[in-house]
Design brief:
Blueprint (H helix, E strand, L loop, with lengths): L1 H28 L3 H17 L2 E6 L11 E4 L6 H5 L7 E2 L1 E3 L6 H9 L3 E3 L4 H16 L3 E5 L16 H9 L3 E7 L1 H4 L10 E7 L11 H14 L8
């Protein structure tokens, strides 16, 4: 519990600094790069203070100059602050549309090319896929938790279809990602973080020429992510 408080205290202290320095600079220059670097550093430092060690595999398979769609499993609130700082260059994500209604935060998220999504509205989901495609065409990576929500038991849930429509429309390589260990350190519905090791596995990128149809791509991504899970969590 002490490490959890330490992480949250660090974030609480770092946020005003980021706001006082990062937000004015971002609004003056209309460039999100500085604030993005601060955010990724803060996220990474926070989880390290919580006693989380991170091991990575497969980063050498990625070309930092290329644009990718990263598709990952999701079991914990620890997943974003661990995974996102590891992505080469900047990545966008999909965020709840309600967050975009806050004046400063919403404008900053728009400058950062984050994509608003209303998970309860099918038509809005289609619009989110189109908006994400525009972001990817700008050369910005997209990171998506393909189950759409966190798993309670660490096993893969059914995948959402939207990410695979996005991949087909954009024609950029898809990188399956397996996150291992966050379920044990901070499972869904638990606030406390236990110290331990998390492993992030970046699987072989799937080039557009090998996508096949949407169902084939979905099956291939699922098999890759599943292969990286411990045997007790594999489906």
């Amino acid at each position: 519990m002490i490490r959890t408080v330490l992480m949250l205290t660090f974030w609480a202290l770092a946020l005003p600094v980021a706001a006082l320095v990062g937000f004015p600079w971002t609004f003056l220059t209309r460039d999100i790069a500085f604030l993005y670097r601060i955010s990724m550093w803060g996220a990474w430092t926070g989880v390290k203070l919580a006693g989380v060690k991170v091991e990575t595999r497969g980063l050498e398979k990625l070309d930092p100059a290329r644009t990718y769609i990263f598709m990952s499993n999701h079991t914990s609130n620890l997943d974003p602050p661990i995974l996102l700082p590891l992505i080469p260059r900047r990545t966008s994500v999909m965020a709840k549309k309600e967050l975009f209604s806050y004046p400063i935060l919403g404008e900053t998220m728009r400058m950062g090319s984050l994509v608003p999504v209303d998970r309860g509205n099918r038509d809005a989901g289609i619009a989110a896929v189109r908006a994400a495609a525009e972001v990817v065409r700008q050369g910005i990576n997209m990171t998506i938790y393909v189950e759409g929500k966190r798993s309670f038991d660490g096993k893969l849930l059914p995948f959402k279809k939207g990410p695979f429509y996005l991949a087909a429309e954009c024609g950029v390589p898809v990188v399956p990602v397996t996150i291992v260990g966050t379920h044990e350190l901070m499972p869904k519905a638990r606030f406390q973080i236990s110290p331990g090791t998390v492993r992030i596995i970046f699987h072989e990128p799937i080039p557009p020429a090998e996508f096949g149809d949407r169902n084939c791509l979905m099956a291939r991504v699922r098999a890759a992510i599943n292969s990286g899970l411990p045997s007790e969590y594999q489906s």
